[in-house]
Amino acid sequence: MFHILSASLRTGRVTTGYPWEPEAAPPAYRGQPTLDLDRCDRTGACVAACPAAAIAVITQRWELDLARCVFCGLCAEACPNAAIALSADFELAARRRADLVLGADLRSQGTLPETGDVATRAAATSALSGLARRLNDRIHRLLRRSLHIRHMDAGSDNSTDWELNALLNPVYNVQRLGIDFVASPRHADLLLVTGAVTRNLEMALRRTYEAMPEPRLVVAAGAEACGGGVLQGAYAVAGGVDRCLPVDVYIPGDPPRPQAIIQGLLIAMDRLKPKLPR
Questions:
Q1: For the chain, N or C: smaller number of CB within 10 Å?
Q2: Tens of pLDDT along 162-198?
Q3: pTM for the model
Q4: Where are the domains of the chain?
Q5: 3-class SS at 221?
């Protein structure tokens, strides 16, 4: 026991001060891609290089869909003029799917080859359901200081799941914020979904949601859950949680770092305001 106490005293406080204290991402961290219009040569190399079809040009407007982006950096590597760079910005959680679609007007800069389908993009952009909107005020009033989470892996690659595990370690210690994980959906306030929702697990996801008491929240964590990621369009997946359930908060990233997940959960509890759209 003495050795344990001695080691604890030597180690000191290791818990992060985020979100109340600003915290910078590590130097090698890949955050939100940014576009420098002055450097853009409008060849469309970034559009062709993106494996998740997260970059498109629609009606002379360059768009980046953070819900689909896997932050691989291939767009930055493919750009001949280094017009695209990966920033260290990880605070990207948003309440609406539409807020994750960022863009820049290319009308004054020339044009890129048109890609994407406007109708498809519009169909993929969903708002809260009528039930979720009616429950919104009640949810925030009841769940503002305490939150019980039921995590469900609906077909992920497990990268986001590992980041969720880190939330309970001494560094992030999400329990200090009144947030904890529970085993049963009947005890949960929030359903945290990872994965692109395989057809095999779609019914299980719906039943888990239906087993939760009201009011209830749904958070999509990771590129697969937010927009399908590289699996979008595959026959075996739904292509994102919002194709099956009403989503209250989206946390993009592949995977999102623990601080980004904490930000998204606090936004769901209405204890933080989203920083998107900028």
A1: N
A2: 999 999 999 999 999 999 999 999 999 999 999 999 9
A3: 0.84
A4: 33-91+98-123, 126-268
A5: strand
